[in-house]
């Protein structure tokens, strides 16, 4: 960066009203009153969560933009119901939060060499960046639109292979691959 | 009803009970209102899950405070740590005592007293049978018992059955130093803050306590001066008398409230009670962002709740004083023009006098409604204005408010000396009539313009926002070898 790129700015000059402070106070009070009247007139910006949900609202009203929303992961299955993953470790390598733990094993099927014997995602560490989805060469891992996942312990929030496959079963009709 | 039971209980006892219950109940709901106002200014809805519109939220909050562990850190000063919140709440509850709720009520009661030759002695006897605070204005004999002897043979003098007319103030206690008492007692509340900050043995709490001290000392002065401006006007410190003198009209429609005669003093007073109540933009003592709660960092459960309650109850007291001094207190505007016989005649010299208990209660509701409006202003200001820096706070008090408040007091004295002495209404009744009020308003405008001109002429304050050379600091001009300096990086 050159010196010529640096823009030196002075503090803005205070107007007479600013210097006497009270007029600006009154203007500020006017602004907040405008907001108060707006809410009391029914124009608040609140989504009453359990009753209203973002996925049910149009985008311009604060609804969910479904094309890009990244929620909990799922492990996709192929037409025969087998897990699509080939345990290539691309996703766990790409993962910036290091939350994907895979143990590969010899594949029982002829069309691939490996398959994941264990596939754990720590949903508490995950930052939902979607890098795993980008990295996957065979579209096996995907991020769904589900966000209301709960668990009572940290252990519960580490999703294993069966849980991730179950999420696929639950979401495949709403969100096909 | 109240007339009946006051044979046995002086009426200030039920009034005190009702007022304190009402104030403490309102405090709980003020906290809900605060959260609602905060939400509304931020385009949110606020608590709405507990009960309809969140109306049961204060009960849930109260339960939480009571059931929480009353934790006291090991390093605190045990006695002071416990006393500090108690001081706060005691002081605030005491200050409620002198608020004027319903003017003066006239009652009559029938009693039997020994007959005396003069009316004065009869009155003195009736006075002795009444509760403290009641003032006998008339004794009329309706029947008598002839002298005789009782069963033990003692002689009984002639007894009179009299109808006693007496007046008593519809408030807990009527002190002739009313507003001075409130200012004096409320300034003790700072002990709660300072002791709480000191006893917590925590640097943030300590800083909060220090800030509170300096702030309170600075803002007591303009507060007292603006109270004086009104006290000088009526020649009294008694809040009920102040309200009484405001309960009439200028030009038949404008209520004779002090907000029109002393607008500058009102602004000063409003700013000072914000500072006094430790609320934004003067909440430096508890600044959440810098001091993690300031003096109440170490407090939890009911001890913290006491600080909290005291803050809001203090708001109620100071707002009620503000209403009594500047907004005509219990004066019900325009309604008493239509119905002067019941609501207190605004054309008489004593509009506070009424005979109906219900009017006294209605007046209490009116002053409470006005108080709630001022409290809403408190909340509105809190969620609109950012906090002052400490030097700005001090400059505002010492360079602006104290000189202006002094000038207002001087202006009031001058107008009263030249205008009041020639004004018949003011000389005889100590009321401000339309002409005098107009003079006050014009003088206030002139004073504001003088202040604006003078504030351009006086030199600016020294720049307090500068680097201070602390030994071994990276801002020091002779840093330690190897130290990073602010100037050469």
What does it look like?
The complex is a heterodimer of chains A (177) and B (489). Chain A has 5 helices and 5 strands; from the N terminus they run ααβαββαββα. By secondary structure, chain A is an alpha+beta fold. In chain A, strand 2 (100-106) and strand 3 (114-122) form a beta hairpin. The radius of gyration of chain A is 26 Å and the shape is elongated. The mean pLDDT of chain A is 87. With 489 residues, chain B is α+β, with helices and mostly antiparallel strands. Chain B contains 19 helices and 8 strands. Chain B has helices at 2-5, 12-41, 57-67, 78-95, 119-129, 178-186, 189-199, 203-234, 239-246, 258-261, 263-276, 288-291, 301-326, 335-338, 340-343, 357-382, 390-418, 424-429, 434-457; strands at residues 104-114, 135-145, 148-149, 155-156, 159-169, 249-250, 254-255, 353-354. In chain B, the strands form 3 sheets. A 4-stranded mixed beta sheet of chain B has the order 2-5-1-8. In chain B, strands 3-4 form a two-stranded antiparallel ribbon. Chain B has a two-stranded antiparallel ribbon with strand order 6-7. In chain B, a hairpin with a 5-residue loop joins strand 3 (148-149) and strand 4 (155-156). In chain B, helix 4 runs antiparallel to helix 6 and helix 8 (203-234) packs antiparallel against helix 11. The longest helix of chain B is centred in the middle third of the chain and has 32 residues, at 203-234. Chain B is globular. The N and C termini of chain B lie far apart (81 Å). The mean pLDDT of chain B is 83. Classes of the chains: A alpha+beta (177), B alpha+beta (489). At the A-B interface, helix 2 of A face helix 2 of B.
């Amino acid at each position: 960066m050159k010196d010529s790129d640096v823009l030196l700015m002075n503090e803005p000059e205070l107007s007479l009203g600013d210097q006497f402070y009270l007029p600006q106070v009154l203007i500020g009070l006017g602004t907040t009153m405008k907001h108060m009247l707006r809410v009391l007139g029914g124009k608040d910006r609140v989504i009453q969560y359990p009753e209203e949900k973002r996925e049910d609202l149009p985008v311009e009203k604060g609804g969910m933009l479904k094309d890009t929303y990244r929620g909990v992961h799922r492990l996709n299955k192929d037409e025969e119901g087998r897990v699509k993953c080939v345990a290539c470790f691309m996703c766990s390598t790409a993962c910036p939060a290091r939350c994907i733990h895979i143990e590969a094993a010899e594949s029982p099927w002829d069309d691939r060499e490996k398959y994941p014997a264990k596939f754990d995602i720590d949903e508490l560490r995950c930052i939902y960046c979607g890098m795993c989805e980008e990295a996957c060469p065979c579209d096996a891992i995907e991020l769904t639109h589900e966000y209301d996942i709960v668990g009572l312990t940290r252990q519960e929030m580490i999703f294993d292979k069966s849980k991730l496959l179950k999420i696929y079963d639950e979401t495949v009709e709403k969100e096909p691959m | 009803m109240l007339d009946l039971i006051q044979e046995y209980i002086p009426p200030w006892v039920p009034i005190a009970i009702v007022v304190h219950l009402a104030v403490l109940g309102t405090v709980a709901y003020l906290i809900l209102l605060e959260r609602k106002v905060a939400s509304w200014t931020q385009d949110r809805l606020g608590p709405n899950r507990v009960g309809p519109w969140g109306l049961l939220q204060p009960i849930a909050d109260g339960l939480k405070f009571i059931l929480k562990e009353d934790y006291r850190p090991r390093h605190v000063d045990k006695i002071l740590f416990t006393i500090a919140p108690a001081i706060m709440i005691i002081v605030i509850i005491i200050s409620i005592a002198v608020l004027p709720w319903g003017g003066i009520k006239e009652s009559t009661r029938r009693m039997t007293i020994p007959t005396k030759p003069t009316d004065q002695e009869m009155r003195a006897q009736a006075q002795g049978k009444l509760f403290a605070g009641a003032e006998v204005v008339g004794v009329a004999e309706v029947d008598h018992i002839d002298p005789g002897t009782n069963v033990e043979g003692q002689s009984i003098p002639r007894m009179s059955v009299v109808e006693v007319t007496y007046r008593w103030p519809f408030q807990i206690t009527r002190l002739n130093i009313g507003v001075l008492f409130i200012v004096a007692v409320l300034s003790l509340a700072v002990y709660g803050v300072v002791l709480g900050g000191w006893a917590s043995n925590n640097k943030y709490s300590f800083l909060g306590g220090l800030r509170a001290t300096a702030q309170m000392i600075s803002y007591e002065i303009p507060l007292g001066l603006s109270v004086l401006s009104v006290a000088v006007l009526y020649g009294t410190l008694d809040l009920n008398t102040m309200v009484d003198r405001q309960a009439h009209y200028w030009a038949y429609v404008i209520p004779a409230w002090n907000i029109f005669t002393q607008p500058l003093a009102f602004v000063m007073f409003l700013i000072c009670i914000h500072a006094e109540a430790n609320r934004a933009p003067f909440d430096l003592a508890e600044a959440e962002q810098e001091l993690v709660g300031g003096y109440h960092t170490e407090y939890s459960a009911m001890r913290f709740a006491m600080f909290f309650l005291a803050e809001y109850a203090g708001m109620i007291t100071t707002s009620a004083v503000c209403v009594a001094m500047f907004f005509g207190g219990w004066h019900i505007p325009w309604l008493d023009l239509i119905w002067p016989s019941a609501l207190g005649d605004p054309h008489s010299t004593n509009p506070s006098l009424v005979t109906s208990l219900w009017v006294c209660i209605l007046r209490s509701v009116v002053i409470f409604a006005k108080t709630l409006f001022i409290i809403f202003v408190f909340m509105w200001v809190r969620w609109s204005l950012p906090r002052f820096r400490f030097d700005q706070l001090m400059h505002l008090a010492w360079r602006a408010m104290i000189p202006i408040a002094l000038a207002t007091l001087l202006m009031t004295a001058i107008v009263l000396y030249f205008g009041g002495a020639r004004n018949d209404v003011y000389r005889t009744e100590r009321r401000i009539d339309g002409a005098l009020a107009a003079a006050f308003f014009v003088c206030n405008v002139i004073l504001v313009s003088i202040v604006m001109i003078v504030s351009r002429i006086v030199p600016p304050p020294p720049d307090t926002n500068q680097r201070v050379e602390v030994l071994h600091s990276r801002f020091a001009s002779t840093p330690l070898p190897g130290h990073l300096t602010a100037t050469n990086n």
